[in-house]
Each structure stands twice: as C-alpha cells, then as structure tokens.
Amino acid sequence: MNAIAMNASATKPEITGTRLPVLVIDDHPIVLQGCRRVLEDAGIETVAEATTVVGGYRIFHRLRPPIVICDLTFQGSGLAGLGLIRRMRAVEPGTRILVFSMHNDPVIVARALEAGALGYVLKDHASAELFDAFERVRAGEVYLDRRLATEVAMLRTDARRTPESQLTPREQQILARLAQGKSYGAIAADLSVSYKTVTNACSQMRQKLGVRTLAELIHVAVTHAQRQG
Question: In the record, which positions carry 4-aspartylphosphate (predicted)?
Fold first, then answer.
C-alpha cells in the first residue's frame, strides 16, 4: 500500500504513489496502522495519512480525496475534528467522512453528524465494524451502530420537544384562551367546564412550565401562540 504521511513538524506533505482515494487523520500511530489494515481488506491501495488537524486539512485541500476517516480529538486541540469536518465539507460537499473516535457521548456523535460526517464508529469496537462502516460510507450510506443510532434519535427527539408539548389537550385549549386574554370564567364557559377545572388546570400548567404566577403563565401562552403563528 502506498502512503502519504504528515507529522506535526512537517511543512509539506511527503507524497508517494499516484492514486489517493482515502485520507486518514489521527494522532495515534497504532490507529493509523489499524486503519491501513482495514483499508487493505477493502481493496484500497493508496492511503494518505495525517497526524494533525492542520496537516490533515492541507493534504485534503491539495488532493481532494473522496473519503476521509477522521478522529475528533487531537492532542492539545480538544474537539478540533468537528471544525475540520466542517471545513472539508465546505470545500468539497460531496466528501464522505467517517469519524473513528473514542467518544460515545450521543451529544458529540450528533455534533459530528451535523458537521457533515456520514458515519461514526467507536474505537473500542472490533476492526470488522470499522470495515463495515467504511464500506457503507463508501457507498454513500449513513453508518451508526444500533445503540448510538438510538441514543442520537432520542437526543434529537428531546431537542424538538417544547415545554408546551407536555401539556394535555385540555391544558393546551386553556393555554390558547389565556393567550387571547380570556378570564377563567370565560374559558370555563367556552369549554363547558367548571371554573375549578380551569383553575386546577392552570395550577398544573404552572408546575409543568416552571412558572409561578398567572402573569408568567399568560406570558408563556402568548409566546407559544406567536410561535404557532
């Protein structure tokens, strides 16, 4: 296998070989070695390698490989891989990026996908999974293992859930009428319920929405109505 390597102290990439279908960016030599073995199994003959974010972007910008395997964290740089993914996708929107990382936090996984990664594999998983992920990403498909996919989906569902979505249909009816400036008595008449039912519902809504007073509840009601258009 031909290889391109760049370390932190290099100023220009040392290039050998002619074809360059894959770029691997990671600051751990053992990880680079493992990726090379997996790529050999996938029939890849030429691999570009970088051990820094700067070096990785330099090689990417020069050679425009269609597929990149990238870590998220680099020594002294935090989650710099997220910014790198965004920059690569900005230059080449069609680039297929597979993240190979130790981070199993669904928030970080979601951020990587939002930045433009097509797949995400944990480093503590078997090399066979990296191979499967690479093949899926190479084919233009999204890859996440089942557990990560479930956790990310739940995270996105929670992010879309507003406090008002916790309310019952009856409470939402009452909230809408509060936004219209109606009194408890008028709301009770509109909905054909007792005055006490309305006051009890408002008390429940204040607890659910984290507000203390009727004025604060009305403010939430008006804001919610404005969002609904």
Answer: 71
